[in-house]
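Appendix B. Raw example, untouched.
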Amino acid sequence: MAQSFTASNATFYLGSPPMAPVSGVQGIRRIAVPWTGTITQLSLFFANSTPGTNENVVINVRKNSTTDYLVTSTADMSTSPAVISNLAMNIPVARGDFIEIKIAYPAMVTYPISGIGGYALLITGS
């Protein structure tokens, strides 16, 4: 994604394809779950030409546009690259579900500017 985050208290969605620009509209970047199982790990990275200040960014996995599963409520975007991981998740998913990564920025003194980013997730199961 190549993006500048400049809106106060803005929510963005990251998903498919992994390197596409984020969207402020839910459902645009959703990922189709290929099989029934459990999301057990999620790692994200953001490389910004200008990192943001150290305010807590909240990141969730949003399932089927209705349910949020917390990844972290303390993501720090003040370094570049910013790497955020949760390797102990337990999100049940079924084949055909849709997920998106929901990134909620607070009012920040300095927003991350001109960034690229991506993610990797692990779904265990059949």
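End of appendix B.
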